[in-house]
Every structure is written in structure tokens, then in C-alpha cells.
Amino acid sequence: MMNFFIQGMGTPWQIPAHIVVLVGLGLLLGQQGFAAVRAGLLVFVLSVLIGLGLTRVPALTWDGSMVLLTLAGVTGILLALRLELPLWLGAVLTGVGGVLIGMGSAPLMIPGLNALKIYTELAGTAVSTSVTLLALALLASLLRTLLNGIVLRVLGSWVAASALMVLALLFVPH
Asked: Can you tell me where the transmembrane regions are (predicted)?
């Protein structure tokens, strides 16, 4: 059973769009301060759980990579601009990101696979994404005053550039 949990923990690290969004959202929340981190993390955890629950509905499966990468680009630009955002906007961004990451983390459906193993894998994904977002947000909250915020602004530009590069790779013919 632990093997399925560990496999679920690795799921977000296998999809480039998930990585870029997690980095962008975590850094953006940390840049906004501890109130944004608390609210954003709560919304993110709930929305990831909703998204993971939606993976059990076969009619709702779709590849949200383009939307996730667009969201990452927006968070990168907001990071680079270093704007004071309203608390609700950070919550909306993390909520959308959480649902899409959850929906994009569906485990492989093998006939005869025990439902408990599927839910264990989904739990690993929820823990991994939430801990990653929290760690990045705490790191960013420590870096927000370093060199007058330049470090986070540069990282934000890298997030936006990374999102654009991965988005461009989606359009390359295979």
C-alpha cells in the first residue's frame, strides 16, 4: 500500500505543467505575505482534493496543460511585477490551479485494481502537491525582502518564460 502512496507523491513531478504552476503559485503566495500563504494553502488543499475526486468521473477527464501553463505564465508575470494583490485573487488562482492539478493527476486505471490502492495514490498526490506549495511559499516569504524583492521578481520572470517554453513545446508536431 505504501508503494501506491509513494507513487502518488511522484505524480506532480512527472508533468512539466504541474511543476511550473506549483513553483509559480508558491512563490506568488509567499511574495504576498503570510495571510496570503494561509488562505492560499487552505484553498489549494481543498481544490486539489476536489480535482482528485473529479478524476473518478470518467466523463471529466481532459488535458488541462494549456490552462495550467497559462496560469503559470500569469503568476510569473504577477511575480515579476510585484503587485500587491487582493487576498481573494490569490485564492482564486490557487483554487483554479489546485483543481486542474488534481484533475491532471489521475492514476492509471488497471482493471481489477483495488479502490483503496487508487485512493492511496491520490492521497500521495494531495500530500506532495500541498507540501511543495507550502515549502515554496515559505521560501518566497523569506526571500520577499532580500535585495528589495529582486530575487522573487527574477524567479517570476523565469516562471513566465518556462511556462511559455513548455506551452510552445505542446505545439511541436510529434
From this structure: 12-29, 36-54, 60-81, 88-110, 122-143, 150-172
